[in-house]
Every structure is written in C-alpha cells, then in structure tokens.
Amino acid sequence: MERTLYEIRPEKRARLTLLDDGERCDAIDERPVEVITGEHYEHLGGGAREVLQGTGFGYANGGGAVRVASPPWHEDDKDGHYMFELGENITSRYKIISKMGEGTFGRVLECWDRDAQEYVAIKVIRSVQKYRDAAMIEIDVLRTLAKNDRTGSRHCLLLKDWFDFRNHICIVCERLGPSLYDFLRKNNYRPFAVDLVREFGRQLLESVAYMHELTLIHTDLKPENILLVSSEYIKVPDYKVSSYNAKSQTGKHFKRVPKSSEIKLIDFGSATFESQYHCSVVSTRHYRAPEVIFGLGWTYPCDLWSVGCILIELCSGDALFQTHENLEHLAMMERVLGPIPQHMIKRADRRSEKYVRYGRELNWPEGAVSKESIRAVRRLPRLRNLIMQHVDHSGGLLIDLLQGLLKFEPTERLTAKEALKHPFFREPSRHL
C-alpha cells in the first residue's frame, strides 16, 4: 500500500550527502614536476604569490617553486557549479580525489593536500554572488570559532584555509565522516541506542554552548549538519527486527553502529551574531521553533528547540514534525507537547494571525488544509509515549530533558549550559 505524504519524511532542502557509489581517484602520487629555481619566492608579496598559485605553481617546503600541472579550464554549469575531473588540481596544492556531496551552495570535494600530506574536504562555492557573499560570512564565523578553540575540542568544524579560485570561494576543512542523517538513512532509519544519543547530545550541546558564549546563534541545527568524525562502523544483530520477522530463514538482521561517537557541527553559513540583523525566518522546517513561526523574534533559545527535535529524531529514527505547513506544524506541537501559551498566540504577528482563532487558540482543526492533515496530527503520540516506545532505559531522564528543551516560551527553555548539567548526561553508558 502506497504511503501518503504525511507518513513519509517530507523532502527537505538539498542535503550534503555522501555518495553511495561515487567515483574516487585513490592515487595520490604526483606526476613528474618541474622544479623552478625560486629561492626568491619567499620574498614575493601576497598578491604575487596568489598570481603564482593561479598559474599552477606552488612552492616546495624546502623553498623553490614547483610546477604542478594546472587544471584545464572548464566552463561552470548553468547553475554556477565548478566543473572538474577526478585527479585534476585546485591550485597547485590540492588534488581532487572524489566528490563527497552537493548542496544549494555548491559542491564538497575530497582532496589530497600536498603540503600537509593529508586528505581534506574543500567546499567549492557556486560562482553566484549571493552564495559567494554567504561563504564569506561563513568563513568569518569559522575564523571566530577557530581563534577561540585552538585545540578543536568544542566539536565545531575546523577551518584550515580558504581561497578564491576561478571565481569560486573554496573553504578547506578537515575531512569528516557521514552526517547523522545519512547514517540513519543508510541504516533504514533504525534509531540510535540511547547511550549513543546521550553522547551525541552532550557534544552537540557543548558546541552550541560554545557558539552562544561567542554570541553566535547557529540557526540551522539538524542531523544533516552534524557529522561523525569517522566513517567506520560495525554491523550488529538487530534483534528488534528479527524477533518479529518469522519468515526469515536466518533469523538475523543487522544494523550499523558507528565505531566512534565523536561528532562535529558544520554549516555555519546561516549563523548570526546576536548583535547582527535577524531575518524573520530561520531553521529548516522540522527544527523550527514556535516563536519563529509566530513571528515573535528569536535568539539563542531557537537553537535549543532544534536540539530537542534532533534528539527525538536520533532515538526514534524519524523527524518529529513531518510537515511543510505552519498551522499543521503548530497543531503537531500541541499534540506532542500540550497547549501553546495564550500570551504567545496573542502576540502573533500579522502573517500568523490566520493560524489563530479568537486571539487565544489555534484555528485547528477548522483551518486544516485537508482531512489527511487532521489525521496526520492525530497520529502523533504524546512526548512521553513517543520516547518510551523507543528507549529501553534512561527514558524518564530523557523525557525530562526534552521537556526542558521544548518549552514553548523561549525564556523558559533550558540554555545549552543548563542542559549539559541535566541528570540524563550523568547516567553511565551501558554499551557504547
């Protein structure tokens, strides 16, 4: 039987995903290079060095310029994406090994760094001015994060370098593993064990607390923007599946478990300093806080709402609020969490008035776009029931934490630092 729109995960904006069968150029040994007498290279000004790099020249660690084959010129595609062939170079320093992913911003390429002798990920931004502008904002944020975290212990992506290559901003970062969303997807949306959710949640909150200390708000927290540091995993029997599959000959089904629980937060292109202009709408739909929908303004607590939604998705396997429509989204919130406070409804901005009835309650179900929409909301369980369906231990503590993160009133929501002190994170892990 075909599943309806509301029974499947709605399409989200373009994700940075690891390719299942992407080509990869594994050879990293260089072609013969022409060493150019260049003992004066170090005395060149920055502009001259950039010109030299643009021609395909680099410089060896021992001094002297080295000629590496310059990539042939390719026209960008119609959307401004950089076109390339595996094995080509980006400047003289980086050799393209594989394409790791693609998004609205551009492409991410796995490259070999000849200078550092390591693999890196290079985010190659589309040659479209608005994306170039956003990339420069992201670079500014990444620099701020790196300057205040020399050891890289705050679980934020590490910026290694950036440069402008053929009208494409290139952001060089450490190479990481798949996103938590991609890991779930490749695991057929089997949820993570609660002990892993605890470790992911702790690190995520530490990175959010660090950003908030620097007066930065991420505004786009979601599983796609949380990457495992390592791609390695093991396969273990999934007894929950095999126990009710009587037709299975072997009686065994397996699920993937990451070898390491270490994660890093990425994608700071939408991050905003508290003192900067705040656009009216932020966050990907499923992780958007109620104050954003009502047009009440937003600040640090909108990140904590997103964290709460993410933790539920990690331990259930599915996005909590699977919708693309504001009134249905708000109705789903009430179904899972209880009534929205009247004072928030009364303060709703003009664009949100149509979701409200008599100035004191949601216009639901009268304002629903369809009967299927009403049924989709009714299918959702209360928060306590939802968590207890999926968590075999620590359920009570996790529910209490989530209730603090998903308070409707932003000023009553737990801060990242407060959440880190919650008893849920003091529970010993049973089997990591």
From TrEMBL:
CDD domains according to UniProt: PKc_CLK
One Pfam family, short name: Pkinase
Keywords assigned by UniProt, alphabetized: ATP-binding, Kinase, Nucleotide-binding, Serine/threonine-protein kinase, Transferase
SMART domains: S_TKc
SUPFAM superfamilies reported for this sequence: Protein kinase-like (PK-like)
Domain Protein kinase: 94-425
Descriptive protein name: Protein kinase domain-containing protein
Species of origin: Sphagnum troendelagicum
Lineage summary: Eukaryota, Viridiplantae, Streptophyta, Embryophyta, Bryophyta
